[in-house]
Amino acid sequence: MTSMELATGDGWRVGALRRMLFAAVLGLSTVVAAEPITAPAERELALTIYRQGAAVVQDRRTLFFPTEAYRLEWPGVAPRLQRDTVRFGAGKRALHGYRLRHQPVAMQALLDAYVGRAVSVMQADSRGPAQTDAMLVSADPPLVSVEGEVRIVEPADLVFPEGVPAHLGAIPTLELEIGRVPAPGTATGADSVMLSYLSDGFTWSADYVATIDPTGDRLGLVARATIENRSGMDVADAAVDLVAGQLNVPRERQVPRTRTESSAVQAMDSAKSEPLGDLHRFELNESVSVVNGARYSRRLFVRHGIPLERRYVVAASSPVGREADTGWNTVPVMTELEWTSERGPLPAGTVRVYRQDTDGAVRFVGGERIMDRPQGQSVRITPGRPFSITARRRQTEFERIESRIHAVGHAIEVRNGGSAPVSLRIEEPMVGEWRITRANHPWDRANARLAIWRLDLAPGETRELRYRARIER
Asked: Could you say which of 151, 176, 201, 219 would form a disulfide bridge with 72 (CB–CB 3.0 to 4.6 Å)?
C-alpha cells in the first residue's frame, strides 16, 4: 500500500470517526432540543410557612423518566418563588439548569406584543363613542398610525381585537434541564419526584380568644392561625406546617403586596407542636386550601381551665423627683391579667378577651398583642381600664436639701367602687439615686427606677398611700 493509499485510508477513517461523533452529538442535542416532558398537574403539595412572609414549597409529582437528557416543564409553581432556591430530588438524575417562564397580563406587556399589529382606538363624538381602525407603531410611548398620521393615545382608549396573545397570562412554569442517567442499567419508569423552593407571599399570624369564666379565676383559650396567600399560586389540599419564631429570610427584591380578596374560617383538632431548632413548629393535621389573595383561618388548639390572676395597676406617667402641681391629678388604672403557658408554647399574636356572665352571655372586654411565649412562661396582658376603680395622686411636699439632693412626698388615693374585692399594685417611677424614707404601707424596690406597693380593697373601700422619698441626681 502506497503512502497515498495510507493517507487516503487514514483520512477516510478519521472522517468516518468525525461523522460518527457529530452524529452522536447531534443525537444528544436532538434529545435535549426535542419536545419537553410536561409534569402532570396532579401533585401532593406541602408548605412550611413562616411569619416573615415566606414558605418552603414542596411539590411532589409522579412522572416517567427516560434515560437520556431531557427538558422537563413543571407548571403551576408560585410566580414569587426565589429563583436561587429551586431544588429537584429525582434520584441520580441531576438538575443542570432551570428558568421561570411567566409573563403576567399587564398593559405594558400587551402593548409590546401588539407593536406592528392592528388595534382600534375608542373616540367620542357627538353621536357617542366610536372605534377607529389603527396600527400600533410604538409601545412606549403608545403611538398609533391612523390614515397616515401618527398620534399618541392613552392605553385605556385602545382595543386589542385579537385578544390576549398566547404567551401572556400563561400559567407560571419552571423549565428544568435534566441530565441523563449516569450509570448504565439504572431503572426507568414512573417515579415520584420532589421539586422544592422558597416562595415569598405566604405568611401566617396567630390570634387568641380568651374567655374568662363567671368566677373570674379561670381562663379558656382558643388559638387560631390565619394563613395568608399572596404568592400568585392557588393552594389546594396542602399539608401545612406553621413555624413560630424570628428568622432572617434573604430576598431577591421587594415585591408589592396585593390586596386580600376573601377569607374563610374552619375548625380543627389541636395541631401537633414541637421544637424546630431555635424555632417552634405547629403541624396542622388537616389539609389546607387557600386561593391566591385569600386569608384562611384554622384552629390551632383549645385549652380550658387555665388558672388566672387579675390585678389592677395604678401607674403614674411622670417620674418622682421634680417639683410639680400640688393639686389632685387623676392616675390611670389598668386591668392586668396573668396566666402561665404550662400546656404548651404560645406564638405571638393578638389576644381578645371575653367575659362570661352568670346568665351564660359572653361579652368582649378588651385585648392586647403578646410576643412569643415558650411553654412555662407567664403571659401578662392589659386589656383595658376598669370602670369602678379610680385613683388620684398629688404632691404633698418638695424640699431641696442640697443642689443635687431633695426630698419629695406624694399621696395616692385609690377607691374600689365595685361590688367585689380587688388587688391593686401601685407603681411609682423614680429617677437618680433614691430611697423611700417614710411610707404608711410596705413597699418593694422592683428595679432601679420603680417602687411598688400592693393594696387589697374591699367593695366600696377608699385607701390612701403616703410616702416620702430622698432623691439624689
From this structure: 176
How far is Cα 268 from Cα 73, in angstroms, rounded to an integer?
Answer: 36
pLDDT at 254: 46
Distance in angstroms (rounded) separating the CA atoms of residues 75 and 40: 8
Question: Nearest to residue 39, comparing CAs of 143, 174, 163?
Answer: 174
Structural element, H or E, at residue 304: strand 294-307
Q: Are 300 and 271 in contact (CB under 8 A)?
A: yes
Gap between the Cα atoms of 277 and 247, Å rounded = 11
Given a contact cutoff of 8 angstroms between Cβ atoms, the answer to whether 318 and 282 are in contact is no
State which amino acid sits at residue 379.
Answer: V
> Strands (DSSP E) along 87-188, which ranges?
87-89, 95-101, 118-125, 128-139, 142-146, 149-152, 158-159, 173-178
pLDDT value of residue 8: 40
Q: Could you tell me where the beta strands, DSSP code E, fall in 147-257?
A: 149-152, 158-159, 173-178, 189-200, 202-212, 218-229, 235-244
User: Peptide bond preceding 141: is omega within 30 degrees of 0, i.e. cis?
Assistant: yes
- Cα-to-chain-centroid distance, residue 418: 43
Determine the Cα–Cα distance for residues 48 and 241; give it in Å rounded to an integer.
5
**What pLDDT, on the 0 to 100 scale, is given for residue 103?**
64
Query: CA-CA distance, 7 to 293, in Å (whole number)?
Result: 74
34: pLDDT strictly greater than 90: no
Say which range, 87-91, 165-169, 233-237, has the weakest mean pLDDT.
165-169
CA distance 442 to 423: 15
> How many other C-beta atoms lie within 10 A of the C-beta of residue 93?
23
| Residue 166, CA distances (Å) to 103, 110, 163 in order | 10, 11, 9
Secondary structure tally for the chain: helices H, strands E: 2, 34
